Amino acid sequence: MLYQLSHTGLFKLSWTADPGSVPRHPTYTNPTYIWYKNGQNVQDNSSPMYSISSEDADSYYCAVKGHNGLSSPAVYKPKTTVSVSPSGEIVEGSSVTLTCSSDANPPVQSYTWWYKKNGGDYQSMTGPQHVFNQIQSSDSGEYYCEAQNEMGTDRSSTINMDVKYDPKSTSVSVSTSGEIVEGSSVTLTCSSDANPPVDKYTWYKKNGASLTGSEKTYNFTTISSEDRGEYYCGAENKYGHLNSSSVSVDVQYGPKNTSVSVSPSGEIVEGSSVTLTCSSDANPPVDKYTWYFQNKTFQNGFGQMYNISKFKSKDNGHYHCEAWNGRGSMNSTALMISLPGKQTSVMNAAVGIIVVVLVLILCLSGLMWFRKKSSKSISETRDTSENVQGDSSPVYDNISGMAMAPTATQTAATVVQDDVHYASVHFSRFKIQEVPLYSTVQLHQPQKQDEDVQYDAVKFNCPSYANRPTAAQAAEEDSSVLYSTVNKP
């Protein structure tokens, strides 16, 4: 027994009996056809045709009344399903096949796939299979298929294609799009597209080690100038890791570490050119400098450098500068700049004092030695006292920086000569009276009215050999005087 299905506005099911399928018997001269829908009798008809609409498409079959076991096979619309291969997680880059299958009688005539990727509009393609050679994250979305035969069309259930992939498009954003000022709060945020989502973040400062923290955000509670630089982050999930490009964090602050330097850096020569330079760390850079001399502002002193074309003694003093930008200002420490003359005079005075002290030590040592030797030769002195009485000429020793006592002409010449240091030691013996023994040490300075004069004088009084008393008398009558005088302006 065969069946036919035709469509002319309505679905028409017709029974066509094979001549040999129905026994030749009087009873079957005018057979009755019984139609069933989903197993239930819906019509007894002498006509082998049964008309239905497309909305009534279902499972149908018919039988011939009185003929046991003689019935048509059932006809029905497709029953459609979708399968995915391989099963399990779908990882980006792998090969994936979607298959649409359907149980239908008569067989399915066409398959149509419908899909919507990442929230877009539905699109379609035909065929029982849809193959992805290297599936991408962009292929994620909703998929279903439809199968159609003469009995109707059936739609499968929808599957969600969830493609797994490692982090992509990792980037860093700054909480503020405006200027970052020192002392403010700043937050950096790391963003990345990943499936499954990123489960670990790592923060880095360019040209530095990794920072503490594995969260999506990195916070500066009070940002400082030391925090300026370039930052980037790394995003990681079970499928991979990806670093972002770097973002610049430009922290603005007022001038810091302001200082003054001088050029040339060596000894300053009178009349030479001297340049002062003001340096300061600031962001934005310093746009105004002010110069001060002895805490008073210079006229026209507003550049980073200040030049003194001919340096003179009147320019000796303390210099400092002030640096200013839109975020604040800062003064440098004062720098003392002077010609070396004053400093040389001080050094010469110190050297002179040292020389005086050394000469005094030598004179005292000589005196002690002389007194000791004199006490041992008292008896010899008495025997020769008469011979000594007639000799009243002074005995002296002159130690000097010059070959003879300075004349008036030589004294004037010393004004333009180097300093002269000399000492004179005189010893005199007289018949009766005590003759002073003295040493004079004088530090000679250039003959300038405003220069300091420093000298030292030491005098010793000793009795002559002829009139030396006894040891007891010497103890009582020794009137030697040792003194030193230092005069300063």
From TrEMBL:
Q: Which SMART domains match?
A: IG, IGc2
Family matches, as InterPro entries: Ig-like_dom, Ig-like_dom_sf, Ig-like_fold, Ig_sub, Ig_sub2
The membrane spanning regions, by residue number, are 346-370
Q: Ranges for the Ig-like domain?
A: 78-160, 167-248, 255-338
Q: Which domain of life is it from?
A: Eukaryota
Q: Which Pfam families match?
A: Ig_2 (PF13895), Ig_3 (PF13927)
Q: Which UniProt keywords apply?
A: Membrane, Transmembrane, Transmembrane helix
Could you confirm whether the keyword Transmembrane helix appears in this record? yes
Name-wise, this protein is B-cell receptor CD22-like
| The species this protein was found in | Salmo salar
Organism placement in taxonomy: Eukaryota, Metazoa, Chordata, Craniata, Vertebrata
* Gene name of the encoded protein: LOC106593527
